[in-house]
Every structure is written in C-alpha cells, then in structure tokens.
C-alpha cells in the first residue's frame, strides 16, 4: 500500500486496519440476526373468523369466549325463521327430536336456536312456565350422578358456584308446572362442541351467546312447551342423525351422504389406529433403551375429564 505523502514531503500516519478474527465475526453475525429479523417485520398471525352474534362477550366479571366458526354450520346457529306452529307469541317451544328451540314471534315468525339434548331433557313433555331465572347459576350433580360416576362428580357433590367452569353456563331458565320445579332446565354451556348433539347428561343447553339472547327476551312466567315425537314429526318432518351425530332432515341425499361419511370416518380411524400403534411401539422402544420395564414405562398424560351438567333435586340454590 503506498504511503500517503503530504505536500512538502512529510509522511502522514497510515490508517489502522482492524482485522476481525473469524470466530469473532461469526459471533457478531449471530448477534445481528435479531436486528435483521426486526427490520423484516414481525410475522402476522391469522385471527380465527368470528361469526356475527357469537363474538366474545364480557358479562360482568366473566369473559365468554367467541364460539368457533366450525360449530356454527348451517342450521346450528341462531336465526329468524318462518314458523307454522299454533303457539302464541312469547312461547318457548323445545323440540328435542330436531334439537331446536323456538321463541315464537309475531306474524308467523320465530327465533330458532340450536340445542344439545341431555338424558334429563328427554324426561319431560307438555307445558310449563318459567318459574325461575338465574344469572351464572350454581350447580349440583344429582345423587344418582355421584353414585354412578364418582370419578367425575364426587368432587362436586357439595355444589359448584356459578362461573365459566360451571356446566349450567351463563344463564338458566327453570321450568315449573303447578307451582313445582320439574327439574327441567334450559341453560348455557361453555362446551360449544356439544350443541346440536345428544349428550349423556344435562337438560337443554345452548351456546352461552344464545342463552344470553333468550334470557333477555323471556320473562318470568313465560309459557314453555316441549313437543312430543308426534308433534315434532308433524311440524319438522322426518329427521335423522348424520355420520357426525347431528340431526338433519331425512332425505335420500342425506342418507347417501351419511354412508359416504361413515366410510370416510372408518378409513380415518384405521389410519389413526395405525399411528397409535406406531407411537406405542416407539414409546416402549425408548423405555427399553433406557432399561425401563414395559409396565413401568411412562404413558402420555390422559386428557382431563369434562364436567357435564345434570339436574339436581337441591338445585334451588342455583
């Protein structure tokens, strides 16, 4: 490199060249990565779609989560429909066979809500009135529920206060007949996947967003009618369950689709079984390499049991 020379022949000092050692250069490059990533912008995440009417709701001290769109398929969401029944406006009509609840309106219309129907929901037919209403009701399992499934219900034998984990959900309407509690309830649920299906326990449950809507429109003393099978057939027509346990009109198209879906589900179950067997072999092989006996080999933690609502003869407390 030529030496810089100033005017008059004087030598100027040479600029110092800093040599960075290779390992230090690598460290500096790694440290710079976060800065480069920040310049590129943070990755954007897609928010799940929210269906109007089923957004998240702040209700007092509790926040009700939005209902996932996958549970709001056609026919399984609240909507205004034409209504041909003979009931007077303001009547609540429950059809456990089509798994629908109607709030009868004026001029041949009604608001239709999808429902889940539990075993207790099948025990009542005829008419009654809303004898009590409760916000964030407490819940207590029946003695029979505690006796038959102590693993699920024994811990709640003394009752469960109202809240997000309570199986009665955000609101409850209690059906009375002749001044007495019938043990028939119309209530909310945080188990959105159950709405539209038959369930092993409970009465009539709605999405929490729907029970909030219904609760605000139905006064104390409102008439409630629970249809018989013959009444349901005359008004709704023949119904059937599809391959996923949902009630749909019984038509040749739906019958054919059910067969196709059942075959598809069977194929998927075979794949899932093969995957589970492969995972089991892998688990046992990993334990064998570590000298762990098969009966002592750790298993994946089981999913937590979900508490399901029933009725209680002591549920006057909530």
Q: Care to give the gist of this entry?
A:
The protein is built from 6 helices and 14 strands. By secondary structure, it is an alpha+beta fold.
Q: Overview of this structure, please?
A:
It is a single chain. The protein has 6 helices and 14 strands. With 318 residues, the protein is an alpha+beta fold. The chain has a 10-stranded mixed sheet, with helices on one face. Strands 1-2 form a two-stranded antiparallel sheet. Strands 13-14 form a two-stranded antiparallel sheet.
List the helices and strands and how they pair.
Blueprint: H1 22-40, E1 57-59, E2 62-64, E3 79-82, E4 92-95, E5 100-104, E6 109-114, E7 116-117, E8 126-135, H2 143-148, H3 150-153, E9 171-177, E10 180-189, E11 204-207, H4 208-217, E12 223-226, H5 229-236, E13 239-241, E14 247-249, H6 252-289
Parallel strand pairs: 4-12, 10-11
Antiparallel strand pairs: 1-2, 3-6, 4-5, 5-6, 7-11, 8-9, 8-12, 9-10, 13-14
């Amino acid at each position: 490199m030529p030496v810089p020379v100033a005017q008059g022949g004087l030598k100027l000092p040479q600029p110092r060249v800093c040599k960075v050692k290779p390992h230090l250069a690598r460290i500096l490059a790694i440290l710079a990565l976060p800065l480069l990533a920040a310049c590129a912008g943070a990755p954007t995440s897609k928010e799940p779609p929210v269906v109007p009417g089923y957004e998240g709701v702040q209700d007092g001290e509790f926040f009700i989560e939005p209902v996932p769109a996958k549970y709001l398929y056609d026919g399984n969401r609240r909507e205004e429909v034409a209504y041909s029944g003979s009931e007077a406006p303001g009547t609540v009509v429950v059809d456990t066979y089509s798994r629908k609840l109607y709030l009868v309106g004026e001029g041949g219309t009604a608001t239709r809500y999808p429902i889940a129907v539990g075993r207790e929901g099948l025990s009542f037919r005829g008419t009654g009135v809303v004898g009590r209403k409760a916000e964030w009701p407490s819940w207590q399992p029946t003695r029979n529920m505690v006796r038959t499934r102590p693993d699920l219900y024994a811990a709640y034998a003394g009752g469960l206060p109202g809240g997000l984990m309570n199986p009665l959900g955000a609101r409850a309407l209690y059906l009375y007949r002749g001044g007495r509690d019938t043990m028939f309830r119309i209530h909310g649920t945080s188990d959105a996947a159950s709405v539209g299906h038959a369930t092993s326990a409970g009465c009539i449950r709605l999405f929490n967003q729907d029970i909030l809507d219904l609760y605000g429109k139905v006064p104390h003393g409102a008439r409630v009618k629970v249809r018989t099978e013959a009444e349901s057939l005359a008004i709704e027509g023949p119904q059937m369950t599809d391959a996923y346990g949902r009630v749909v009109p019984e038509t040749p198209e739906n019958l054919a689709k059910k067969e196709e879906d059942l075959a598809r589900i069977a194929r998927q179950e075979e794949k899932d079984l093969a995957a589970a067997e492969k995972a089991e072999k892998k688990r046992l092989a990993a334990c064998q390499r570590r000298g762990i006996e098969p009966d002592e080999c750790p298993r994946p933690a089981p999913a937590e049991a979900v508490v399901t609502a029933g009725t209680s003869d002591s549920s006057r407390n909530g």
